[in-house]
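Duplicate of earlier report; Polysaccharide deacetylase family protein input re-posted below.
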Amino acid sequence: MDLYTYSPIIDRPTLTWPNGARVAFYVGLNVEHFLPGKPSTSIWPGTSTLVPDPLNHGWRDYGTRVGIWRMMDALDRHGVRASVLLNSMVPAEYPQIIEAGRARDWAWLAHGRTNSVLHNGFTLEEERAELTGIVETITSAVGHRPSGWMGPGLTETPNTPELLAELGLTYVLDWTNDDQPYPLNVPGMLSMPYTVELNDLMLKVPGPEFVRMVRDQYEVLSAEGGRVMSLALHPFVTGQAFRAKYFDQALEFLAAQPDVWLTTTDEIAEHYLRTQP
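Output:
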């Protein structure tokens, strides 16, 4: 079975968002734990295979020590609740982040165990046990079961969506091929828009250019209507001081637009399931 069926956006009914909004906007905040001594996301690959690798591990570690708290201030200032892509190792490693996110009623999505290990290479039963452990750990930490999934590095196996549905999850973010949610060919499972373009790991642009890109994205999606706009962000990147001020400016712009629904992936999925046949 193919995971999804081709569906050109021009052939679909127009989506409507609450209060007449034309754009549903969310911040996908990647809150991750990286294993010391294991190559992962790096700012300079030259040392990524060394043990220890202070250059790259320290860069990643900045996000949980400093960057996320700076980003949290901006989110609070503009009334934006994060949709957190959460490694299940985070609650044990950084409990203060979980406490702060719970106080803000963030949406929590399962994001694998650690971003030092991609989600692949499992047998069916191995993956069932792995996903069960991830979901149960996050549920215990945040107080409710996650509804969404994004794999570390947007990785899945052919069985992942079906196993997630067994566990009661309703959507995945790994397939970045649309501006609207759409049903997968797995009963009860949606694909939710996510971005690898407005994604701080991919963007190597000055801060003012980042704000311009956010404005341009909004303007086109607003003109089309019934679209989802996401920002995919990492605290060790956008939480850097010289970038954080532009993140704040981007949120200020979007929060001021009367046709933007500031929301979370959970709320988008719930609205879609409630309003679409």
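The first helix runs from residue 54 to 77.

Merging into the original ticket.
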